[in-house]
């Protein structure tokens, strides 16, 4: 059977973290949460990712989205590693064009037995530790208020995540949710761009929903299915 994916309810695990015990469903509460894993503390790509996530934390907070990290290292290791992450972030902010320096204000859960990463479908089949045990992958789940996975990213250990794309994807999800699934975002969409109207919405319904109107692309099929509107 496939692991946890879009449309599945995230397991209600309780784990130790840098902020104390956390039960995932309680942490999600009635908002959105990004649960993201990293292979190991004190590793190069993970350090840059964690620093980047910290620098974007305020942007996610503006959107009502909380962050929740997880790794197979223990809490003591996480807390020591955070010192490196924040020091790296500080050095980045002092360089030309560097990201804003940020503290790691979100919790990082510990999974030393590696049972949680299996339930969360965050295991990298190729990356092993010195004992030959699988490490976490670079997985990211966006979980909605209903505790259901709305979006997932899965990256190998060799590829760091792009936080601009994570933020863009979250904006897309929130836009679709605001309009109750009646709109979707097209390729390369960014906030402020036009969205497309879903095929389940008739032209008559669209006129009521979008009083500023919509534009239908003139395509050879003449089916009128590609309709753009401001949201």
From TrEMBL:
Catalytic class of the enzyme: oxidoreductase
Task: Tell me the protein family, please.
Answer: Belongs to the peroxiredoxin family. Prx6 subfamily.
EC number(s) from the headed UniProt entry = 1.11.1.24
Question: According to its UniProt record, where is this protein located?
Answer: Cytoplasm; Nucleus
Instruction: Indicate what this protein is called per its UniProt record.
Output: Peroxiredoxin
The organism named in the record is Digitaria exilis
Q: Which reaction does it catalyse?
A: a hydroperoxide + [thioredoxin]-dithiol = an alcohol + [thioredoxin]-disulfide + H2O
Question: What keywords tag this UniProt record?
Answer: Antioxidant, Cytoplasm, Nucleus, Oxidoreductase, Peroxidase, Redox-active center
Where is each Thioredoxin domain found?
Answer: 4-175
């Amino acid at each position: 059977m496939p692991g946890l994916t879009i449309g599945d309810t995230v397991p209600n695990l309780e784990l130790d973290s840098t902020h104390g015990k956390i039960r995932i469903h309680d942490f999600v509460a009635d908002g959105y949460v990004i649960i993201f894993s990293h292979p190991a503390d004190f590793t190069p790509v993970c350090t840059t990712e964690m620093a980047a996530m910290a620098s974007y934390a305020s942007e996610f907070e503006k959107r009502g989205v909380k962050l929740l990290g997880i790794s197979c290292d223990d809490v003591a290791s996480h807390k020591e590693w955070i010192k490196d992450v924040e020091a790296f972030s500080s050095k980045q902010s002092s360089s030309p064009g560097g990201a804003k320096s940020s503290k790691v204000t979100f919790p990082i859960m510990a999974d030393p037995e590696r049972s949680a990463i299996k339930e969360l479908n965050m295991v990298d089949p190729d990356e092993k530790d010195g004992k030959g045990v699988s490490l976490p992958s670079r997985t990211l789940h966006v979980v909605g208020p209903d505790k259901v996975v709305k979006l997932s990213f899965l990256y190998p250990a060799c590829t760091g995540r792009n936080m601009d794309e994570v933020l863009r994807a979250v904006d897309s999800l929130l836009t679709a949710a605001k309009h109750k699934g009646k709109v979707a975002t097209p390729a390369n969409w960014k906030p402020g761009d036009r969205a497309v109207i879903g095929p389940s919405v008739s032209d008559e319904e669209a006129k009521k929903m979008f009083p500023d109107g919509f534009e239908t692309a003139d395509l050879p099929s003449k089916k009128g299915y590609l309709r753009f509107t401001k949201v």
